[in-house]
Specification:
32% of the residues lie in helices and 24% in strands. The chain is an alpha/beta fold. The strands form 7 sheets. It has a 6-stranded mixed sheet with strand order 7-3-2-11-25-24, sandwiched between helices. Strands 12, 15, 16, 17, 20 and 21 form a 6-stranded mixed sheet that branches.
Length: 455
């Protein structure tokens, strides 16, 4: 078995792990980064490269009403400082106007030329500075010393097990969305139908290793970041998930197989997915008219409908609401009578401007569905990363079941549980913000341990 000595071990090579690793190295630590996939970059490399976050604490808490203000402020501060740090690494982060009106104030940056290039640039800086990157190498467990501090990790690589001794470990493995077993445990019976819009290697290695080291958890484990995706036979993967996302649902309505609305669509489909996963078979339908299509479903001259059709998605298009309901009943098994009642009630409320008339009020975007032709897209929830993970504090320290930090153990990105609680305030910003914090803290811890080694 190979044995490596280091100051800091980072598990995961996405934006959280690369940020943490390079930050720790620049603070004077020797760093080994373990990446389960054959290549570096994680799900971040397949993203659109937009790094954004809430503009301030009030905006952040409006999206996560039960969120921890201390964790929120830590993410905000780490994100702002992280943008400047990225630029110092030679990664352009260009401020952008928000692409469309949003529920809260945001600050938005674009990584140039794209996210994959940015991840490669960070990895190159890490290795140029003496850091080691081991790909095809998955974290298995964390070994603690007699006094309960981090001592080493065990990982499985292409040539067998490898032990890395280090006084500090940063977990940044990206969540557990790639594990059908963990999804079923925490998200219910229909979670196996979810569309994975992330790297498949994120199967909860960080969470499981943290639990083995005595970590407490923080959720909600049933919630996640994702978007509605066209259901099979649509082919959706890392190559096209951004193009086929029907990201105009705030202005439309979702119904289930019973023909009923089940959530406030104006909260965005990043919130609606949490309710959709509990609908029968997790199948839902996005319904809208031609006015909504022409106003909100077009982007860069190509409508989302074209992209969805090219991917093989199923879209009904009919000249009347009655014909649409009949088609959805015939081909998809939707309750026709209830669907018509839902559409009629919705249009009446929209015409009167009275969201309170709806059984599930809509907080905005109450537009009538009345301009033919009428459309319905058959959808499933898509998942990008999970919200439940190891409990952390604002220093990214992992907390044990007794409520105390585990010396030398940190988490960033989706492995840091309890940061996000309901909605969505940026994915790359979560990795960037807590990656910066974890890298600094881990390097400081390693330096302290070098001066006062465990006896």
């Amino acid at each position: 078995m190979a044995v490596i000595e280091s100051d800091v071990v980072v598990a995961g090579g996405g934006i959280g792990g690369l940020t943490a690793a390079l930050t720790a190295q620049q603070a004077g630590a020797q760093v080994v980064l373990l990446e389960k996939a054959p290549q570096i970059g994680g799900s971040a490399a397949a993203s659109g490269g937009t790094v954004w976050c809430a503009a301030d604490l009030a905006s952040w808490l409006s999206e996560h009403p039960n969120g921890d203000p201390a964790l929120a402020q830590a993410q905000l501060d780490g994100f702002r400082e992280g943008i400047e740090w990225l630029r110092q690494q030679g990664v352009p982060a260009v401020e952008q106007p928000p692409a469309s009106p949003y529920r809260f104030e945001r600050v938005v940056y674009a990584l140039s030329p794209d996210a994959a290039w940015a991840m490669d640039a960070l990895a190159e800086r890490l290795t140029e500075g003496g850091g080691s990157i081991l790909t095809d190498t998955a974290l298995r467990d964390i070994r603690l010393t007699a006094r309960g501090a981090v001592g080493s990790v065990r990982a499985l690589g292409p040539d067998g097990f490898v032990d890395v001794t280090a006084p500090a470990v940063i977990l940044a493995t990206g969540g557990f969305q790639g594990s059908p077993e963990l999804r079923a445990r925490y998200m219910g019976r229909w979670s196996d139908r979810m569309v994975l819009r992330a790297q498949a290697q994120s199967t909860g290695d960080g969470l499981l290793a943290a639990l083995g080291a005595g970590a407490a958890t923080a959720g909600p484990f049933s919630r996640f970041y994702g978007h509605m995706m066209p259901a099979p036979p649509a082919v959706v993967g890392l190559h096209n998930f951004a193009e086929v996302k029907p990201d105009f649902s705030e202005w439309a309505i979702f119904v289930n197989l019973r023909g009923e609305r089940f959530d406030d669509e104006f909260l965005g489909d990043a919130v609606t997915v949490h309710a959709a996963i509990h609908q029968d078979e997790a199948i839902v339908f996005l319904i809208f008219d031609d006015a909504i299509r022409s106003t909100y479903a077009a982007k860069a001259g190509v409508t989302r409908l074209q992209s969805i059709r090219q991917a093989g998605g199923e879209i009904a298009e009919e000249p009347s609401l009655e014909a649409l309901a009949a088609a959805m009943a015939t081909y998809w098994g939707v309750r026709q009578d209830r669907l018509l009642a839902t559409l009629q009630g919705y249009n009446a409320a929209a015409g009167a401007g009275d969201p309170g008339a709806l059984s599930i009020p809509k907080s905005g975007g109450l537009l009538p569905i009345e301009t033919p032709p009428f459309y319905a897209i058959r959808c499933l929830p898509g998942i990008t990363f999970t919200y439940g993970g190891a409990r952390v504090n604002e220093r990214a320290e992992v907390i044990n079941t007794a409520g105390q930090p585990i010396m030398g153990l940190y988490a960033a990105g989706a492995d840091a549980g309890g940061v996000y609680t309901r909605g969505y305030t940026g994915g790359l910003s979560l990795g960037l913000g807590f990656g910066r914090i974890a890298g600094k803290e881990a390097a400081a811890c390693a330096t302290t341990q070098d001066q006062h080694p465990d006896s």
